[in-house]
Automatic annotation (TrEMBL):
This is DUF904 domain-containing protein. It comes from Hylemonella gracilis str. Niagara R. It holds the Pfam family ZapB. Keywords: Coiled coil. GO terms for biological process: cell septum assembly; FtsZ-dependent cytokinesis. Residues 7-62 form a coiled coil.
Length: 76
């Protein structure tokens, strides 16, 4: 086998670079989809956390009402 000419070597290298570029583009698309999904999941979790905090705050307010604490003092 003879050694490839500089042009043939360059063509081969460019072809490999194009294949790698296409692979990177597909990988990038998959990663962008994953980021989008994770962002949506994060936003949903933030909403659930806010709702839970609101419920906990409401419960704490009910516990801290003055009438409830007087009832606790009277019990043994």
């Amino acid at each position: 086998m003879s050694e490839p000419t500089p042009i043939e070597a360059l063509v081969e290298r460019v072809e490999r670079l194009l294949v790698r570029y296409e692979e990177l583009q597909r990988t990038n698309e998959l990663l962008l989809d994953q980021v989008e999904e994770l962002s949506a999941e994060r936003d949903q979790l933030k909403q659930r956390l806010l709702a839970a905090r609101t419920r906990v705050d409401a419960l704490l307010e009910r516990i801290a009402e003055p009438g409830d604490q007087e009832g606790l003092k009277d019990s043994p």
